[in-house]
């Protein structure tokens, strides 16, 4: 897959790292990229609440630049540097569409894991400065691609869902692959939140 944006993220993988630190890492990277591109960034959050009760750097960002949510019906942004703060999968769908041919920085929340997305997009881990390690084997990547293809109808009941379940029954027994990796990969491949929710149920049944 060829990603249409340059990605970076702060994984929610360390209980010692507070939200302020995570947000500061993402904002610093995104603003540097925005200056280099000479483009105004935009903030994507699950609700407006994060703009007022989140870390100080997020509140400041929201006061300085434009902000939106996947539930809003406001302006449409295209080819903009995007900061996605604790996004759900609907927010990620929106953020990636806005970041087309630009850059995207994400502060992950463990309620919506994004490891598979980070692997697939080669997102820079801002806690280390290095691209996210891709632990998938070539065969595992082929099987993920098959599940992606079978999901062309959003994994509604029928052939695609059944074939995906068959692939998953083997895939989930392999080292280095779990629900987080699979779901995140499908986020990177552009599946919407409703499709992701249906796939998550198939994964849970296959475990």
Question: Can you give a write-up of this model?
Answer:
- The protein is an alpha/beta fold.
- The chain has helices spanning about 20-35, 50-55, 55-65, 90-100, 115-120, 140-150, 160-170, 180-190, 195-205, and strands at about 5-10, 40-45, 65-70, 80-85, 105, 125, 130.
- Strands 3-2-4-5-1-6-7 form a seven-stranded mixed beta sheet, with helices on both faces.
- The two termini are about 25 Å apart.
- The mean pLDDT is about 95.
- Total number of helical segments? 9
Q: What is the rounded distance between the termini?
A: 27 Å
Estimated structural class: alpha/beta
Strand content: 5-15%
Question: Based on the structure, what is the oligomeric state of the protein chains?
Answer: single chain
Share of residues in helices:
40-55%
Strand order of the biggest β-sheet: 3-2-4-5-1-6-7
Return the average pLDDT rounded to an integer.
94
Rg (C-alpha, Å): 17 Å
Number of strands: 7
Shape: globular
What is this entry, summarized?
This protein is of the alpha/beta class and 207 residues long.
Note the main attributes of this structure.
207 residues; alpha/beta; 7-stranded mixed sheet; globular
How do the helices and strands line up, and which of them pair or pack?
Blueprint: E1 6-10, H1 19-37, E2 42-44, H2 49-53, H3 56-64, E3 66-68, E4 82-85, H4 89-98, E5 103-107, H5 115-121, E6 124-125, E7 130-131, H6 138-150, H7 159-171, H8 179-188, H9 193-206
Helix pairs in contact: 1-3, 5-8, 6-7, 7-9, 8-9
């Amino acid at each position: 897959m060829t990603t249409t944006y340059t990605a970076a993220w702060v994984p929610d993988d360390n209980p010692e790292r507070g939200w302020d630190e995570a947000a500061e890492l993402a904002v610093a990277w995104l603003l540097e990229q925005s200056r280099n591109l000479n483009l105004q960034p935009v903030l994507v959050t699950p609700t407006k609440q994060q703009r007022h009760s989140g870390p100080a750097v997020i509140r400041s960002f929201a006061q300085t630049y434009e902000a939106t949510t996947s539930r809003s019906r406001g302006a449409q942004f295209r080819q903009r540097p995007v900061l996605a703060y604790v996004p759900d999968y609907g927010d990620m769908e929106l953020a990636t569409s806005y970041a087309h041919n630009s850059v995207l920085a994400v502060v992950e929340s463990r309620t919506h894991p994004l490891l598979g997305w980070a692997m697939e997009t080669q997102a820079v881990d801002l806690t280390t400065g290095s691209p996210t390690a891709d632990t998938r084997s070539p065969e595992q990547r082929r099987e993920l691609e098959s599940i992606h293809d079978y999901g062309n109808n959003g994994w509604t009941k029928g052939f695609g869902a059944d074939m995906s379940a068959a692939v998953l029954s083997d895939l989930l027994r392999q080292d280095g692959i779990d629900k987080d990796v699979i779901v995140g990969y499908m986020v990177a491949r552009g599946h919407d939140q409703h499709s992701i929710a249906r796939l998550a149920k198939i994964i849970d049944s296959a475990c």
